[in-house]
Structures are given as C-alpha cells and as structure tokens.
Amino acid sequence: MTSAMEQLPLLLAPPPAPTLDNFVAGRNGAALAALREAAAGRAAATVVYLWGEPGSGRTHLVRAAAAVGLAAVDDADRLDAAAQITLFDAINEARAVGAAVVVAGPRPP
Which helix H or strand E contains 71, and what residues bound it? Predict the structure, then answer.
C-alpha cells in the first residue's frame, strides 16, 4: 500500500525592507543616532562611516540610509579606482550642500 504525501505550502514572507525604524540597535545606538541626524539634515559630519564584522548591522543601516535618500556605499574596501573617485566626488558634493554620505566597511577607517 502506497500513500501519497501531500506537500503543504509554507506561507513565508520575505523579510521587511531595512529601515532605521526596524533596526535593533543594541550596542549600535550611536550609529543609528548618527544616521537619524543625517537623514534629518543635521549630520555632525559629512561622512558617517560604519564599520563592523558581518552580522553587525552595517549593511542594514546602509540600505536604510539609502532608502531615506542619503548617498550610501557598503563594502567601501572593495571599491575599484573608478568607484573610489565617484565616492570622493559624492563626498565633496555632500560637503558643498551640507549633506552626509554613509560609507561602510569591515574595519575602522
């Protein structure tokens, strides 16, 4: 006797898009606060640099920053020469208008 197994679909939703509001800050409260200030146009510096190991939340924060209209680059250590020039230009443009650029990498600057 054979029995046919019925496959049950799992209703899995994709994870929500990264935002500043759904980031669990933990020890990264200062990073979150800096990005909130930058998003509000009150950045203390032109460049907000986030660094940490994989799983530290930096990619979530970079994507959240981009979603609120900030120029944002993740894995800056992997940029080729042309991309480095583009980032340098973006930082100069942000400085000229009083905005911020969010940059992230695995190590301190």
Answer: strand 71-73
> What is the Cα–Cα distance from 3 to 8, expressed in whole angstroms?
15
Give the whole-angstrom CA distance, residue 86 versus residue 58: 21
Q: What is the DSSP string of 18-61?
A: P-STT---GGGHHHHHHHHHHHTT--SSSEEEEE--TTSSHHHH
Contact 84, 31 (CB under 8 A): no
Look at residue 78 and tell me whether its pLDDT is greater than 90.
yes
**Residue range 18-47, pLDDT digits in tens:** 999 999 999 899 999 999 999 999 988 999
Nearest residue to 69 (alpha-carbon basis) of 105, 44, 94: 94
Cα separation, 108 vs 38, in Å, equals 20
